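Can anyone check this?
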Amino acid sequence: MELYVGVDVFFVAASLPDFVKAFLKCDEGTYYIYVNNELSIEEQKKAIKHEYLHLVQNDIEDEEPVATIEKEVKQIGY
């Protein structure tokens, strides 16, 4: 996984529903990865890596169904 240079990414620990580990949001070119603050540190790291991979793959602009995108990311190992 390579880093994006010049891209603003902020991480937010938030109170999320139990079934949501993390999600990626873009607001005017700035990316936010919200992670469930109830997860262990290791689970948070894994969830952040998963969402970052969505950023690297530009999934936020993808018109594929979410289930298809998630399947592709999980095949990579996140």
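Reply from J.R.: I decoded it. The chain is about 35% helix and 25% strand.
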